[in-house]
Design goal:
about 80 residues; alpha+beta; 4-stranded antiparallel sheet; 2 helices
Length: about 80
Amino acid sequence: MSLFQKIFAAVLPQRWVEALEADSRLWMVRCPCGFASSVWEIGGIRYKAVGEPRWFRKCPQCGQRSWHKVSRDQPPPSQSHTT
């Protein structure tokens, strides 16, 4: 967990932190070379966000600095929700 994520985890209720993590794991950062990792895995948080921005960063696989597309993957099919 990054420092940024730890700060949020320290001040927010646990269920909110779990929701932040779950949503952030659905947002993928993709390099033109094909490498992809979730926003959460790279130490970020993207929660209840819209749009598909591009981030200029260095790819850990190919080592090149380039514009990486950030897009939301579809969540896995969930089982019935109970309220």
